[in-house]
Specification:
The complex is a heterodimer of chains A (441) and B (266). Chain A is α+β, with helices and mostly antiparallel strands. Chain A has helices at 7-19, 25-32, 36-52, 92-104, 112-122, 132-144, 164-167, 171-187, 192-207, 234-242, 324-338, 366-374, 401-406, 417-440, and strands at residues 148-150, 159-161, 218-221, 245-251, 280-288, 293-300, 305-309, 313-321, 349-357, 379-382, 387-395, 411-415. In chain A, helix 4 (92-104) packs across helix 5, helix 5 packs across helix 6 (132-144) and helix 8 runs antiparallel to helix 9. Chain B is α+β, with helices and mostly antiparallel strands and 266 residues long. Chain B has 3 domains: 11-68, no CATH class; 85-174, SH3 type barrels, CATH 2.30.30; 176-260, Alpha-Beta Plaits. Chain B has 9 helices and 10 strands. Chain B has a 5-stranded antiparallel β-sheet with strand order 5-4-3-2-6. In chain B, strands 8-9-7-10 form a 4-stranded antiparallel β-sheet. Classes of the chains: A alpha+beta (441), B alpha+beta (266). Strand 3 (218-221) of chain A pairs parallel with strand 3 of chain B, so a sheet runs across the interface. Chain B: This is WYL domain-containing protein.
Chain lengths: 441, 266
């Protein structure tokens, strides 16, 4: 059986999160490059998942899923998109068996034989009684993912649930742990595993009698919610990088409009229409805090640095291993070239100088604070009481330009001259657009 | 390590819920171990608890996935975990009021009674705030934890707590503003990044197929108008404020002022 891929779900959820409400079924399907039938089927699955997870939804979120995923900022910090990672398919009988095993192992350690008896007793008659081989297979899986541990070194092995992290902690300590996981999952990358852990700890608090609202004391503004979808590929890439392994994948440039192409099962149409698979030696992953987007950076066989938006990557396959020497050589090149990238740009390095104006109102100097906090490796020189200079050597200007522009009239570009001209032209155009507003003031 | 595991499956999860059982995987423990090495762990736990946690995680693999990640354009972190979070979150969870002592912007300090509502972390400023309701000024307050000197819990009568909460949530609700941002059609090719830039707001998108025009309908708290404006300026000519007089006026003001900065008269 082919490995289950979640590319379709990732793309669909991303489109819902980004452009929620904008498209009807046909338009959605067309943009995803799938049939309306497949769209409906995937939506049904997602809805089923959402309702069975009983995520507490606010009235605003309860609108149809197809209208998009909306966040009411003040209601909850639960990441709605996390349910993507709950999508792995599982036979009903298997989920019953695994949860039965885990339940009986919560507070005791048992052997496979004892578990077999337990399962036969406790499992509903609607499901076939498992045999010993099945139970051993289940135990192997549960041990592999780490949810159970062996408690003895000699046969017959005894197993118990690996929940010391919950059981060994006092109520107060559990609250501290929940909070820490909540804070770190929300403020650091990567965060999917943290959010999964947060879910479990939240339940542990509930079980100990804490009001669910007691878990909702923190808010985070603002999150790029779809960032966690891209973590779907992160672990595959991490393994490839660790093993110095090339990967192949199909890339859909986000600009082209179609985010996913169904794999054609008809051999007559086997040819990939969208994009070629790209053999790439993955080197680093970049997270861009300005948009909440991820990039994969690697080395192509045509001997060049290549950058891919993580969201366009589908159907990753692992390829051959390269030598340590080759990997390090390319990694050094990438690190050198990207040292001065505002995000990922590797164009020629340019000196940018800008004058920033302190706020006219007395009080905190939020302009200065923002430049100091976000100006990356740029340097600040004092100029006068009204202003200061900011200088940076940066690869290309395309990535830093929006940041400079976001300061509005508090930033005046001095160098390079052509960038200064561009800013003047843009502000003129913006002013012209809003000119009619002035007449209404 | 693959986040798509059978053990995370939604049916699995709801069955475990029903039987009050827990499943903790190696992945989650490895993630926690990785993040306990962050310096902010010292502020989040007593040293006993931290020692206990590290002991419980001692056997987990130490591979750090962050080794392959480079973070760009990140705001410098003032702090991730503030030492006062622990006591404040308990006051909030218990529904207590508090005598709040804080430093004022222009020097000096103030002490007044208030109802702590939430602890808020700004991903932009990378620091924590306490959101609280001040009955004296009938206002919602946001105080940087760095400016907070003390917050002593005060037990409240249930009726009093309920009425304070009601007033606070009314104020929160009344602060909501709406605006419509239009994606300039010429830049539809860049729709993805434009939508990403606005994906941090509470918003919906509408699309007029005939005109091939996208509108982003943003709901935002009134005091976040400046942040929304900085996003609009960030995108430059790609977007325009279609509805929202305050935002339009501010865009006109900042473009006019910017032009003046460059020494060009009107």
């Amino acid at each position: 059986m082919a490995r289950e891929s979640f590319d379709k779900e990732v793309q669909l959820l991303r489109l819902l999160a980004l452009a929620g409400g904008a498209y009807n079924r046909q338009q959605f399907a067309a943009r995803l490059g799938i049939s309306v039938h497949t769209y409906d089927k995937t939506m049904r699955y997602l809805k089923e998942m959402q309702s069975s997870l009983k995520q507490p939804l606010s009235p605003e979120q309860e609108t149809e899923l197809s209208d998009g995923l909306r966040y009411n900022y003040y209601e909850s910090a639960d990441p709605l998109l996390l349910f993507l990672f709950r999508a792995k398919s599982l036979k009903e009988s298997e989920s019953v068996r695994l949860s039965t095993i885990l339940t009986v192992l919560q507070d005791q350690s048992l052997t496979a034989k004892e578990l077999l008896d337990c399962c036969s007793e406790t499992m509903s008659a609607d499901y076939p009684s498992p045999d010993e081989k099945t139970i051993r297979g289940d135990l192997k899986y549960l041990e592999e993912v780490g949810v159970i541990v062996r408690t003895s070194d000699s046969r017959p092995f005894r197993y118990t649930a690996a929940i010391g992290l919950i059981n060994e902690l006092s109520d107060d300590e559990l609250i501290d742990l929940y909070d820490y996981v909540d804070v770190m999952a929300n403020t650091q990358v990567p965060s999917v595993q943290g959010y999964l852990l947060r879910d479990t700890l939240k339940k542990a608090l509930r079980k100990r009698g804490f009001d669910p609202s007691a878990a909702e004391t923190h808010l985070y503004k603002y999150h790029y919610h779809s960032r966690i979808l891209d973590e779907a590929h992160l672990h595959t890439i991490h393994r490839a990088i660790r093993e110095r392994r090339r990967i192949d994948f199909v890339y859909h440039a986000p600009r082209k409009g179609k985010n996913y192409a169904a794999k054609n099962t008809n051999p007559l149409f086997e040819r990939e229409e969208q994009s070629q698979t790209q053999p790439l030696l993955p080197l680093r992953v970049i997270y861009d805090h300005q948009y909440g987007r991820w990039y994969l950076i690697g080395h192509t066989q045509r001997n060049a640095i290549a950058k891919f938006r993580m969201e366009g990557i589908t159907q990753i396959e692992e390829g051959e291993v390269v030598s340590e020497e080759e990997f390090n050589r390319h990694l050094n090149t990438v690190e050198r070239q990207m040292e001065r990238s505002w995000v990922v740009d590797t164009l020629r390095t340019i000196k940018v100088v800008a004058r920033f104006f302190n706020p006219e109102r007395p009080g905190s100097n939020f302009i200065r604070e923002r430049v100091e906090a976000q100006g990356q490796w740029g340097s600040i020189t004092e100029e006068s009481d009204e202003s200061f200079l900011y200088t940076i050597m940066v690869n290309g200007i395309y990535e830093i330009k929006p940041w400079l522009r976001s300061f509005g009239s508090s930033c005046e570009v001095l160098e390079p001259a052509w960038l200064r001209k561009e800013f003047i032209a843009e502000w003129k155009e913006i002013q012209a657009h809003y000119e009619p507003v002035r007449k209404n003031i | 390590m693959n986040p798509f595991e059978k053990i995370f499956n939604y049916q699995m999860l709801s069955r475990l819920d029903e039987s009050n059982a827990f499943a903790l995987t190696t992945q989650e423990r490895a993630w926690l171990k990785m993040l306990l090495s962050h310096q902010s762990a010292e502020n989040a736990f007593t040293s006993d608890t931290l020692g206990k946690l590290r002991g419980l995680l001692a056997d987990e693999a130490a591979a750090d996935i962050r080794d392959i990640i480079i973070e760009k354009a990140k705001s410098r972190e003032k702090h991730v975990y503030h030492p006062m979070l622990r006591s404040l979150r308990r006051i909030i969870a218990q529904g207590f009021g508090s005598y709040i002592t804080y430093r004022l912007k222009h020097g000096g300090m103030r002490n007044q009674f208030g109802l702590p509502l939430k602890l808020e972390y700004s991903m932009v400023k990378r620091e924590w705030y306490l959101l609280w309701y001040s009955p004296r000024s009938r206002m919602l307050m946001a105080t940087k934890l760095d400016n907070l000197i003390a917050a002593d819990a005060v037990e409240l009568h249930a009726d009093r707590a309920a009425s304070l909460h009601r007033r606070a949530s009314e104020l929160l609700h009344n602060r909501k503003q709406q605006a419509v941002i239009e994606v300039v059609r010429m830049y539809n090719e860049e729709l993805s990044r434009i939508l990403y830039a606005f994906s941090c707001f509470d918003k919906t998108v509408s699309y007029d197929e005939q005109a091939d025009l996208y509108h982003i309908h943003v709901t935002y708290p009134a005091d976040e108008g400046e942040y929304l404006l900085s996003k609009i300026r960030f995108l430059g000519l790609r977007v325009r404020v279609a509805e929202g007089n305050y935002l339009k006026r501010r865009m006109w003001e900042s473009s006019s002022k910017a032009i003046a900065r460059y020494g060009i008269g009107e």
